[in-house]
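# nightly structure sweep
# worker-07 picked up a monomer target from the shared queue
# config: single-sequence mode, recycle default, output format = structure tokens
# input follows
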Amino acid sequence: RVVDKAPVNSDYLGLIHWVFPNARFIYMQRDPVDTCLSCYFQNFGNTHPYTSSLHALGEVYLQYRRLMTHWRSILSIWILDMQYEQLVSSPEKEVRRLLEFCELTWHQKCLEFYKSGRYVNTASYDQVRQPIYQTSAGRWKHYEPYLRELKDTLSGLQMIG
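# output follows
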């Protein structure tokens, strides 16, 4: 099993499906403003230069959503739609649903991932070393006065789910 939550994974969905035709994909969706703000606050350096601009983040997010719509229309893939906000509010229920989709069995340790001593290579290293928390859902509301440009860019976006 491979888990990778890089911001541009959607670019490679067609290739991944071609190389691994039986792969199963988890499409974790989150409030678009929270998603963009999370990227904005993360220091990706030169890897994702668009993350230093709220307008650019909004534009990239719109293109990502268009691309996901495209992949769904041309690929016959196993894909599970999940909502981040539901995962953090009902973790056991959502993790069980995810495991069932992946044909894996439930174990209580699935909710105790933060206790693992395994190597983690992610920008959100600190987050995977603590239990699931809900404080990032709706986080954008704390910064609303500063998000006009982002919200204007995302205006008209059709919400999924």
